Amino acid sequence: MIASWYDEQGPAADVLHVGELPDPLPGPGEVRVRVTVSGVNPGDTKKRRGWLGSSMPYPRVIPHSDAAGVVDAVGNGVDARRVGQRVWVYGAQSYRAFGTAAQYTVVPEHQAVPLPDHLGDGLGASLGIPGITAHRAVFADGPVDGKIVLVHGALGGVGSLAAQLARWGGATVIGTVRRGGDLERVDPAVVSHAVALDSDDPAAAIRSHAPDGVHRIIEVSLSANADLDNAVTALDAVIAAYGTHDDRTELPFWPLLFNNVTLRLLGSDDFPLAAKRQAARDLTAAAAVGALTVDVGDRFPLVDIAKAHDRVDAGGRGRVLVTVP
Question: Where is the Enoyl reductase (ER) domain positioned along the sequence (predicted)?
Answer without folding.
Answer: 12-322
